[in-house]
Specification:
Oligomer: heterodimer
Distance between the termini of chain B: 39 Å
Number of strands of chain B: 11
Helix content of chain A: under 10%
Largest sheet of chain A: 6 strands, mixed
Structural class of chain B: mainly beta
Radius of gyration of chain B: 13 Å
Distance between the termini of chain A: 36 Å
Number of helices of chain A: 0
Number of strands of chain A: 10
Strand content of chain B: over 45%
Strand content of chain A: over 45%
Shape of chain B: globular
Chain lengths: 108, 120
Amino acid sequence: DIQMTQSPSSLSATVGDRVTLTCQASQDITKHLNWFQQKPGKAPKLLIYDASNLETGVPSRFSGSGSGTDFTFTISSLQPEDFATYYCQEYDNLPPYTFGQGTKLEIK
Amino acid sequence: EVQLVESGGGLVQPGGSLRLSCAASGFIFSNYWMSWVRQAPGKGLEWVANIKEDGSEKYYVDSVKGRFTISRDNAKNSLYLQMKSLRAEDTAVYYCARAAWGSYGCFDIWGRGTMVIVSS
């Protein structure tokens, strides 16, 4: 099974900051990588699919890049509503589809 | 409105069974792969199982193989997860998730989840 490693596991930042998260796959997953945002008590929300495509309705301050094994997720200017936990998830070939352990983004 | 609504969660003893349901609305259910994803309290997300549009293919995470069965009824726009031989480690919020059209692992729509607690 593919392992997904996210870093950092937690991050403190301020409104207006540029924030970058990373996700590394244990093997080549081409661009089969998604990013989700989850707020406490809520379901995950898809933000980025296929590594770099912005889901409809998601603000353009969110972006993703990468291919193969190394991926990044960036918020260009943090807004108060962006404080949440972010997960990457691979879906290369057959299941299981593995999520990263998550990055908790907190207010500094 | 595109919507998924889970039901059927609750408290069950170890070794017991439970059947989760997910009612879909606002889209053509039979055109999409569907999955169950769970989240243990305070933990991350774990994909559990998925099923092809017509139900002809099903896949499971190793930890539930032989104990959980995913199924669907396209006439009723419903997804199910039959869970047997439940263990404490199955305690989690269970989410129903739709894979985007033409995809199988890109989850674009999620339900609000149903809580399963396995405890004596």
